[in-house]
Design goal:
globular; Anthranilate synthase; 323 residues; alpha+beta
């Protein structure tokens, strides 16, 4: 069976390739299109094949569907999630869920092109392999962008509807601050030279908007993948302190995150564009499973966090309705 890869880096042309994804050890990855799961325990690299360009790729579906939590159970689990903060001394934790909707998987390619057209500032992709199934998404979160040695990463946290004109509240500002401080500290311990910080500022990503801070620096004394391993997962998708947050996520979430909140994009010698895999879904025959997360602090209200995940789901659902 042939694997498929379609992607569009913001500001670039759409790339479509046929070939095969392979499991890889982090130490052996030299470059190319890269996928990694949330835990950075599984890496996949894509190898294009010129011999199959005249053939049609298959869609690959996993046998086991992701676990879908109902709203009442989510609210209960979310309350327990927050209650564990004091015991684990957490400032923030990210609790996610999976939402199932009906979708004709044969429209996957059409969905990709619609996402690319509607979200020009997002990294848009469609990948399919029997190693991980079929995934599609439009993520706004840059993990690491490098042009020659000029590098950038961002802090993206705090969420509300894009048409919400109210002031950002204390909880949303705290979320942003936690992620920003973590990235600043990590870069400060890793990067030699000046780090330019711009933000926070408001950033619209389709149906939702976030608070965003940009970090600009030169990458001279560390490899791109090594820096990714130190940054990821940031508190934007895990929490802080990181180890305690991941422990709580593993204990509470009943689904496997798999590629959701993992790393996706291109790794190169001079140019790198890697993103955090958000606003994504896994396709199966007749269904789409949307992966949705919310940043929790001690002040979080479970019902409000459920609503936030519903708002985030509109990034994909708004496009589903056009097909």
């Amino acid at each position: 069976m042939i694997d498929t890869l379609k992607y569009r880096i913001p500001g670039k042309e759409i790339v479509e390739q046929l070939g095969a994804f392979h499991s890889a050890d982090a130490q052996s990855i030299l470059g190319g299109f890269l996928l990694a799961d949330f835990s950075l325990k599984k890496y996949f690299v894509f190898e294009e094949s010129s011999e199959i360009n005249d053939k049609k790729a298959d869609l690959h579906f996993l046998k086991n569907d992701p676990f879908v939590i109902e709203k009442d159970d989510y609210l209960s689990e979310a309350a327990s999630f927050i209650a564990s903060f004091q015991h684990l001394n957490l400032k923030k934790g990210v609790y996610s869920r999976v939402k199932k909707v009906t979708f004709d998987e044969q429209k996957a390619a059409s969905l990709f092109f619609e996402l690319a057209a509607n979200y020009p500032n997002s990294f848009v992709y469609l990948v399919s392999s029997d190693l991980f199934g079929t995934w599609i998404g439009a993520t706004p979160e840059v993990l690491l962008s490098i042009e020659n040695e000029a590098a950038k990463t961002i802090s993206l946290a705090g969420t509300k509807k894009s048409n919400d004109e109210s002031d950002w509240n204390a909880k949303e500002k705290e979320e942003q601050s936690i992620v920003t401080q973590f990235i600043a500290q990590t870069l400060g311990q890793t990067i030699n030279g000046k780090i330019e910080v711009n933000g926070p500022y408001q950033y619209i990503a389709g149906p939702v908007k976030h608070l965003r801070t940009d970090f600009l620096f030169n990458l001279e004394n560390v490899s791109a993948l090594n820096l990714v391993q130190q940054l990821h997962p940031t508190p934007a998708v895990s929490g802080l302190p990181k180890a305690g947050a991941i422990e709580l996520i593993d204990k509470t979430e009943k689904h496997e995150r798999s590629l959701y909140t993992g790393v996706i994009g291109l790794l190169g010698e001079e140019t790198t564009n890697l993103f955090v895999n958000l606003r994504c879904c896994q396709l199966t025959e007749g269904s789409a499973y949307l992966y949705l997360g919310g940043g929790f602090t001690n002040d979080s209200i479970p019902a409000s966090e459920w609503e936030e995940t519903e708002n985030k789901s509109q990034t994909l659902l708004n496009i589903f309705q056009k097909l």
